[in-house]
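Supplementary Methods. Inverse-folding protocol.

Structures were first reduced to a discrete structure-token string of length 135. This string, shown here, constituted the complete conditioning input.
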């Protein structure tokens, strides 16, 4: 199964590395994609995430590397053609790049942001739904 992963999924996996979200990221047969903006968002929230997860920087960086090893990132230039449509349909301006990846790959978005389901172009799957799908 191919999915685009947004920042709230990765944040959740970092805050709770032994939790369901982190477990699902490593399910065999799950192929994850994302926008490069995810890396920037993670950097911007690094201190807050380290505090919430009670992780020293070295462990945070190792966990980030491990999680990112499971994600194929699309470059901005690959998404340029899809950004206008993504802006049109995405309910949250902060998630436009993730919608652009969904449009580029023609695959659903894995997100726990309920707001993103308020459109009908991109299918949005939350962690609970994904957990049921993969058994």
């Amino acid at each position: 199964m191919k999915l685009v992963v947004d920042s709230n999924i990765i944040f959740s996996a970092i805050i709770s590395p032994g939790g369901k979200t982190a477990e699902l990221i490593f399910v065999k047969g799950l192929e994850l994609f994302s926008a490069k903006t995810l890396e920037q968002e993670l950097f911007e929230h690094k201190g807050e995430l380290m505090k919430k997860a009670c992780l020293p920087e070295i462990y945070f960086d190792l966990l980030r590397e491990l999680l990112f090893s499971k994600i194929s990132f699309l470059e901005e230039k690959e998404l340029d053609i899809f950004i206008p449509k993504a802006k049109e349909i995405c309910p949250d301006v902060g998630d436009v790049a993730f919608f652009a990846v969904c449009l580029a790959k023609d695959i659903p978005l894995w997100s726990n942001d309920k707001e993103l389901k308020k459109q009908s172009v991109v299918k949005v799957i939350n962690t609970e739904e994904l957990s049921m799908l993969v058994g």
